[in-house]
Amino acid sequence: MELIDRAKVAELAGERLDFRFKAIPAEAWGLTVAEYLATAPRLDGLGTPLLTLDAAALDHNLRTMAAWCEQAGVGLAPHGKTSMAPALWQRHLDAGACAVTLANLPQLRVGRAFGLRRVHLANTLLDPAGLRWLSAELAADPEFRFASWVDSTRAVALMSGALRGAPAPVDVCVELGAPGGRTGCRTLSEAVEVARAVHAAPGLRLAGVSGYEGPLGPDASPASLSAVTGYLRGMAELHRQLAGEGLFDEVDEVWVTAGGSAFFDTVAEELAPLADDRTRVVVRAGAYLAHDDGFYRGISPFGRRGAGEPLRAALHGWARVVSAPEPGLALLDAGKRDLPVDLGLPAPQKVRGGKPLTGATVSGLNDQHAYLRDAEVAVGDVVRLGISHPCTAFDRWTLIPVLDDADADRPRVVDLVRTFF
Question: Which of 30, 183, 237, 325 places its Cα 20 to 30 Å from the Cα of 218?
């Protein structure tokens, strides 16, 4: 069974290029994506500012994560909200992912438009019209599997009410949170109460236990790791209690799922022992595919624990020096509208086709400019930038070129990845 509509994804190669796509040169307007790629374009033919992906790094990261999950005994449902790129979702699934995680109703609609058949919604879906649409989708496609989260009896009542008379039930996982965290029941007893309410609610089925440990561990310090470990042990205890009461008896497969891109190793250590013939333990790391040169490089288990060969940064920004108004300062034509800044500023790496920029820094970004400090550059040079936090990079671009080798003097564009934010 196909988990995504490959024909729909393939149709993206027939989209015509035009002014909507930043950095695509005007001479390519009117060509389809496939026609443009057939011209063997080079990086230096694209405009700036620009965000690119590196083909070899993507391949390496996919293989590395798939092998790790198999060895750890966990499934992978990568968070598709990172890229919102159906072509990349397909690559996740081809590499062995069991589902794609999404974050809200608009993202779910994109997923269904491209035929996703295994979707985990890491959020509570309360929109009445959205719930009725979802139920109709489930009824129309018997191979479509879906589950969302719930963390209160009030939410259970609202969902059940919206689904009154709907053609198919909706699966939900009870979400365990923690004081000071994000969403989720704050205590085990509260979570058990919510699970019992789901079990009794018409239109809903209890399908598992879910959570997100990220807010409890802002770094890889012993204190953060201890907080994450304690939280995950609470999730394990919740699963045991709910299974002991028989609250999962309406579903064939039960999920226990946690794990962003920072602590999936700890998730596997604490939760993988729960897996059996009916229970699947699933991590949801999504940023691993693109990785980065900032936050995730420092916190990923592949880096901080040496759990195999490190992931590689696949995302790079490219910006042109447009001004050098005083010694030690140059202004680039990329800003907050083009590159993420929420988990660290871009890092200057090299001049395109030239020397590395050792010791240079970016001290700040405006909407459309970056302040490059202590770099030996000239007006007109194009600078490659490492970025931090891919989740806030993809959403600034509707079409992202994929390069054969971002380290080459004149990289070739081998693909264009379409996003849908």
Answer: 237
